[in-house]
Amino acid sequence: QVQLVESGGGVVQTGGSLRLSCVASGGPFSSYAMGWFRQSPGKERELVAGISPSGGGIRLADAAQGRFSISRDNQKNTVYLEMNSLKPEDTAVYYCDAGTGSAWGPWGHYWGQGTQVTVSS
Q: What is the pLDDT of residue 105?
């Protein structure tokens, strides 16, 4: 069973930056696609960014284009989400997930506890 631990969230002002990290255990990390999702109150959880097992394939949601980037370090079993030019609408709990396909999924729903990102205006 894959276990995921997210970290790096916090409170930032509009225009600020954060780097989220997700450490995976319990499975062959380098064979999993990894994704970052977010969920804000009253909304469904949505995919923000996905990355293929090798890191060669990347998918970014429209809202993340030009501001966020996803990367991974297979030696450290870690996936990162670099977020720049943050907006209040980016406020959400951010989760990572693992999948057996590509940067587009499918996803295994191995949700961790998430990390809260709050962007103040």
A: 87
